[in-house]
Amino acid sequence: METLLCINRREREEQRDLVANDQEYNAKFNYVNNEIKTSRYTWYNFIILNLWEQLHRVVNVYFIVLLILQYIPQISSLNPTTTLIPIVLVLAITAVKDAVDDINRHKSDHSVNTRKSRMLKNGELTKEQWKNINVGNVIKLRNNEHVTADLLLLSTSEEHHLAYVETAELDGETNLKVRQALPETGEMGEDVNQLCQFNGAVKCEPPNNQLHKFTGNLYWNNQTYSIDNQSILLRGCILRNTQWCYGLVIFAGADTKLMQNTGKTMLKRTSIERLMNRLVWFIFMFLLLMATVAAIGNSVWETWTGVNFQLFMPWESYSPNPQMSGFLMFWSYIIILNTVVPISLYVSIEFIRLGQSFFINWDRLMFYDKKNLPAVARTTTLNEELGQIEYVFSDKTGTLTQNIMEFNKCTIAGKRYGDARAKDGTMVYPHEYNIVDLSFNEYAEKNFHFYDHKLIEVITSGDEDCALFFRLIAICHTVMPDESEDGRLVYQAQSPDEGALVSAARNFGFVFKSRTYDTVTILEQGKAVEYKVLAILDFDNVRKRMSVIVQDPQGKIMLMCKGADTVIYERLKEDTDEQFKAQTTEHLDEFAGTGLRTLCLAVKALDQNTFNVWKHAHDQASTALEDREDKLNAVYEEIERDLTLIGATAIEDKLQDGVPETIANLTKANIKIWVLTGDKQETAINIGYSCNMLTESMKNVFIITGYEPEEVEKSIQEAIDEIGRPSAPDSQDDLRTPGKNVMQYIKTKVVNTSRVANGVATPHINNTNEQESYGLVIGGHSLAHALIKDLELKFLELASHCSAVICCRVTPLQKAQVVDLVKRNKKAVTLAIGDGANDVSMIKAAHIGVGISGEEGTQAVLSSDFALGQFRYLERLLLVHGRWSYMRMCKFFGYFFYKNFAFTLVQFWYGIYNGFTAQSTYDDWFVTLYNIVYTSTPIFILALLEQDLNDDYSIRYPKLYLPGQKNELFNIPIFLKSIIWGIITSIILFFIPYGAFAQGMAPTGLDMTDRQTVSTVISTCLILVVTLQVALVTSFWTPVNHFFIWGSIVIFFIFTFALHSSGLYNLITTQFPFVGVATNAYSYPATWFTVLLVIAICILPMVAFRFVHNALYPHYNQQIQKIQMKEKKLSKMKTSESISTLDLFRTKLHLKRRTSRPKSGYAFSHERGFGNLITSGRMSMRKKNGTSTENSPQKVVEETPAPGPSKNSRNEGVVTESYKELPI
């Protein structure tokens, strides 16, 4: 099989060894080239492999075996073509669908592999397709081009050999990263001759998935140079704001870190499909039991009775005795009873799923107008699984957020600014006419919107506090200024937070104009002021602050600091005005309470002597050979004290429309949402609060930041102990087995959905006080230890107790590992949603993958099962389409087994009277058409159109979603109920007509007791009974339902009269033996009396049971149906006063703004800034270099369209007082 898949096994690498421009040397190691392959088949192995995969379905093997048996004339009483055509059709339809999917993957691979790149070859640059690039080649990249492979940066067009890259497809971050070539290789520049002669040898780590780590050495000119991640360009990055660069291919194709993080493509099956495979075995065992009983019965009959008919019915030569006859009848009954699982079941399933997929694609309420993107079901096999999701794993950047930072509010000297106010000072809703006029500032950006006119008045009046506030913002950062070709000032920010702050200062008249390694030039209200930069105390995740020490033109030295409020407040001078601090704290509470990201600003005046002493200590620490970082932090701590508070900023990390409401509603549906993001901890926590995942009502939010396994284990155990729940299970088996220890607690305490589906009007929800809920935040370095075998179950236990889980700074592979951990240890359906290449492995690992068509490329969408334009559409995809699809499929399965057991078991009961000789009760044409024509369309239409409640109510009452999570609408007990009722129906269908006609006589005096007449009566009773059963289970009646349900009965009678006509009999006598039977049978009053009696006995008890059950023990959805009916009636009476159902619903959902903020609303740069590069003189502003940034607006703090108001794309309806009757 591996040969068919073209898998070439390579020995595991211990070290990568290569020489630049030496293909002969590199070829010895058999490194892969740069071609990638995500497709599964080739033209020559498709038929064999696809057939092999389809034979993994037990049911396909089952039908092929039956087909073979039907070709044995000694045991078959049915025409083999009745099975051959359906099985070929099923295999062909599935093969075509798989072929189309794989062709799309081939096209995707081809589009990537045939991209062109410039490669040094034979002393010149030539264009080569990506797939022809090999390890050791030197290639050239230009601005805005994708990085071809994992490269060692050799030289660039920029000063100090710098290059700027966007890593959105790798880690989801859209801010630019800086990479720097080694000075020794950077001197080659773009000299093609030198680059062609470059023969450096590289020895480095083998291929791996560590995105933020690289270890290796370059050996060149008898020197050894250390290589780290700062010199590596990874495949998946995009070169930005750099005219050109050259790189040496280290890893290519499947060995690149991007592909190493992609994860394997797995064949996904729904839980219902997996259950079906188990049920097929059960049915097969039941079939064997019935065939065995029939075989024994035939042997007994032949021994006692059949032997008496030897004279005119001699035994065949192949059946010389009763025992052999019984053996042959065993196989005959296997064939004649095989319709308990007809092949048409699987044909119907494929078409039903296809129809449901079209409904998803056609849903206008999931159409994203801004980008003209509809929802797309990229697979047709997982629709019902959407109604069973219990865990959602979501990326953050681009999935929950727009990754757009906007300066929103601020507090300066105890005064709050940023609220839109009317002329009388009262706060109003921001509108376009409230936007402040910034025309006095020629550098103001057109897309910058601010609504508080008071701040402009204070700034223009020359207020010193405001001037100092914005001066600090304009100076204290590591942003790099640049000029585009048309002379526009643009900024390159390491963090979108910094970009938003510097942009705000610019718009308020404090324009960051230029910088060198030791100066910063600011335009303060049009006047250029140059500040000398004496030191930059760079940001990191431990310090949570950054500072600069500058000297103004008058010679005054000042330290300017910005950082988290908790960090800044600890370092304020003792005589700070307490009222000022209290006012600022109150404003910070209000800012953080609305989900804004906050930073505190402070300053400190320094005299020359103090600075000189500190500078000497700083120089010594910065040159220390041991513990350099710790010594520098101590020096920083020494100067960053006795600060003077001046204010705080509040930045909005704009969420996508409807994200908080969607998360709140999905949470009410008992769906646990975990955020897995590459962003840093503070950013993730702030988004958690903004999305209503984390709330102030939580008893505690556990933050795990350990770097060693022991630290992580200790933190997890302490958190579990604080929760006060049962300790970790003694073994993995205990945790994985339902009903034991923690898992039993989780399954019974979180939501007891069995009471929803089994007759109780309202769901039984855990009574735990909301104040006792918990949150969990864990970093990537800690998660790496938490996912080891000895600790993963304890981590899962803790996470299961928390209502919100956020994993930050995680790699793409870690995302997949978290998903896999839940899949392996919890019997729950998982969904992963993301928008970037860094989410692909997670999307592939989950039961269902959803791709957001976002700003980070299309890799996530191409790997997904469903594609959406916005995260908010996930609510409708699950609560509406998912719930409907699951409910429809469950009704379909329950009814299908019922009608086929009722149909098939009649054959068994008839065997009692024919010596178990496998004689068919029915006309062969009736057997052929029963599942294909007579009973297929009513249930097919029900499975496509059924709605117990409309989409509006499905969203309003998310607890309607709960039964699907525990497979409560179709499971083994419900299956057994269906087949038991089918067996009872078959008994009624056979014995009542048989009893009515056994001694019957027609009015003409003729005997009515013949097999064909009884067969026709039984067939008529069967069709009417099973069709009326469909009508009973239908909740949503449309003209289409009426047409196909009642039309199927008409079709039955039309076909019956046609097949029993003399015309067809005369045409092919042997194929139509029931000539004239229908006309005769339907002319007997006894026939119609029998039909009515059978219908009454089969249908009336079911009607009575449902009436009593619905009256005394209504299901939750039936209670909502009553509300829907009441509101419909009232809406007709009060049409003019109708209001939007969803508007009121959303009002109910909106959580109150937190009255207190989290420990900090602070969030800042994703990683260490450019401070070291700036102060070392290796980075400076670049004047017009011809590099246009037009193609990368997300990297530039420039003109972007103002986001419009949030749109609610829900249906509208009417709300009445009955809305309060049930919990949402």
From TrEMBL:
PROSITE patterns listed in its UniProt record? ATPASE_E1_E2 (PS00154)
EC numbers on record = 7.6.2.1
| CDD domains xref list | P-type_ATPase_APLT_Dnf-like
Q: Name the positions where ATP binds.
A: 395-397, 498, 539, 562, 597, 677-679, 809, 815, 838-839
Q: Where is the P-type ATPase C-terminal domain?
A: 861-1114
Q: Which UniProt keywords apply?
A: ATP-binding, Magnesium, Membrane, Metal-binding, Nucleotide-binding, Translocase, Transmembrane, Transmembrane helix, Transport
Q: Where in the cell is it found?
A: Endomembrane system; Membrane
What membrane topology does the UniProt entry give?
Multi-pass membrane protein
**Active site feature:** 395 (4-aspartylphosphate intermediate)
Residue ranges spanning the membrane: these are 279-301, 328-349, 892-913, 925-945, 974-997, 1017-1037, 1044-1068, 1088-1108
**Broad class of the protein's primary localization:** membrane
What name does the UniProt record give this protein? Phospholipid-transporting ATPase
Which BP terms does GO give this entry? Golgi organization; phospholipid translocation
The UniProt record lists the P-type ATPase N-terminal domain at: 20-84
Q: List the Gene3D superfamilies hit by this protein, alphabetically.
A: Calcium-transporting ATPase, cytoplasmic domain N (3.40.1110.10), Calcium-transporting ATPase, cytoplasmic transduction domain A (2.70.150.10), HAD superfamily/HAD-like (3.40.50.1000)
Where is Mg(2+) annotated to bind? 395, 397, 835, 839
Q: Name one GO cellular component term.
A: trans-Golgi network
Q: Which residues form a coiled coil?
A: none
GO MF:
ATP binding; ATP hydrolysis activity; flippase activity; magnesium ion binding; phospholipid transporter activity
Pfam families reported in the protein's UniProt record: Cation_ATPase, PhoLip_ATPase_C, PhoLip_ATPase_N
Similarity-based family = Belongs to the cation transport ATPase (P-type) (TC 3.A.3) family. Type IV subfamily.
Q: Which reaction does it catalyse?
A: ATP + H2O + phospholipidSide 1 = ADP + phosphate + phospholipidSide 2
Q: Which cofactor does it need?
A: Mg(2+)
Disordered as annotated region, ranges: 1177-1224
